[in-house]
Write a structure and sequence with these properties.
translocase; mitochondrion; flat; transmembrane; 5 helices; ubiquinone; 113 residues; mainly alpha; respiratory chain
């Protein structure tokens, strides 16, 4: 283990010192401009993005994570009493349902203004 650590340490020190010796290249405006099939870009490459899609994606990730917490519950029932396993599965489902109800009541899932 120690030889690998020493090799990694020496290699990183060599690469860090070589990077200081290499000349820095300052790119000009022509190199920084985008190139697309020989044409200059006419507009901005950034398109407006609705925050509602972002909110729905965050909600999906949160609820998907809570569902992923439920997946090992059948195997957990083998190690703990089944009532305790069912209790924690119920708690996760209640939190999931309360989160969905909260977002629904706050209008987070409404598309029309």
């Amino acid at each position: 283990m120690l030889p690998y650590f020493l090799i990694a340490m020496i290699l990183s020190i060599i690469l860090a010192t070589v990077s200081f010796w290499l000349p820095t290249i300052s790119p000009d405006a022509e190199k920084l401009s985008p190139y697309e099939c020989g044409f200059d870009p006419l507009g901005s490459a950034r398109l407006p993005y609705s925050l509602r899609f972002f909110l729905v994606s965050i909600l999906f990730l949160l609820f998907d994570l809570e569902i992923a917490l439920l997946l090992p519950s059948p195997w957990a029932a083998q190690f703990v009493p089944p009532t305790l396993s069912m209790f924690w599965a119920s708690v996760i489902l209640i939190v999931l349902t309360l989160g969905l109800a909260y977002e629904w009541l706050k209008g987070g899932l409404e598309w029309a203004e």
